[in-house]
Specification:
The chain is of the alpha/beta class. It folds into two domains: about 120 residues, NAD(P)-binding Rossmann-like Domain (Rossmann fold, 3-Layer(aba) Sandwich); about 90 residues, Regulator of K+ conductance, C-terminal domain (Alpha-Beta Plaits), CATH 3.30.70. The protein contains seven helices and eleven strands. The strands form two sheets. The chain has a six-stranded parallel beta sheet with strand order 3-2-1-4-5-6, sandwiched between helices. Strands 7-8-11-9-10 form a five-stranded antiparallel beta sheet. Helix 5 links the parallel strand 5 and strand 6. The longest helix is centred in the middle third of the chain and has 13 residues. The mean pLDDT is about 85.
Length: about 220
């Protein structure tokens, strides 16, 4: 796989090293001469000095044959433009972008960036998963703006225990996609009965998340 990386930030540096160690072909595009030189001294000719938002630089880097372009600079706008150029000018099949400001994430999805990495979201998810018995875990943000996939653990004393799915009055833009029971995972069906310790995987809107949580865990 040939990966073009825009930005020799700490993320770009470690991403490049990891991909090279795994046997992939890599080119790193870095605008700042000092960062460029440091990477060149360690990794050699995989680094190219230039602007990752410039079509000429991307052409020189071989973007037209890249399998993936990963834009990981410290500026959201730079990452977005680099991905747009790669996808629409050079027809790169997959683009990935780092987004620092969580408010910008929906724009990246709407404009077709295939993979959007939000460090804040990753840290939050890790914290949630690290708390034993955490009742709600954010699994991922979906391409539709302000839409997320969550997992909610049903407490034994929740009012939802013993109810069929068709008896739950969910928020208008939220729906259950999977119910994980002790023995197996079940697809949602109207007559499926919730039990204590079930895990409900649901799609919800950001502003509906507290309501959905209360419906499934409230006593």
């Amino acid at each position: 796989m040939f990966v073009a990386i825009v930005g020799c930030s700490a993320v770009g540096y470690h991403l490049a090293k990891g991909l090279l160690a795994a046997g992939h072909e890599v080119i790193v595009i870095e605008r700042k001469p000092t960062r460029n030189q440091l990477l060149y001294e360690e990794l050699g000719s995989v680094v190219l000095q230039g602007d990752g938002t410039d079509a000429g630089t991307l052409k020189l880097a071989g973007a037209s044959r890249a399998n993936l372009l990963a834009a990981v600079t410290d500026l959201d706008e730079t990452n977005l433009v680099a991905c747009q150029l790669a996808k629409h000018r050079f027809h790169v099949p997959r683009t990935m972008a780092l987004v620092r400001d969580t408010r910008n994430e929906p724009v990246f999805h709407v404009l077709g960036v295939d993979v959007v990495v939000n460090p804040t979201h990753l840290v939050l998810t890790s914290l949630e998963e690290g708390v034993p018995g955490s009742p709600l875990v954010h699994l991922m943000n979906l391409p539709v703006p302000d839409t997320t996939l969550v997992s909610i653990a049903i407490p034994d004393d929740a009012a939802a225990v013993g109810k069929r799915l068709d008896q739950l009055e969910l928020p208008p833009h939220s729906f259950i996609s999977l119910v994980i029971k002790r023995s197996q995972a079940e697809l949602p069906a109207n007559n499926l009965v919730l039990e204590g310790k079930d895990e409900v995987v649901a799609v919800t809107m950001t502003d509906e998340e507290p309501t959905l949580y209360d419906i499934l865990t409230g006593v």
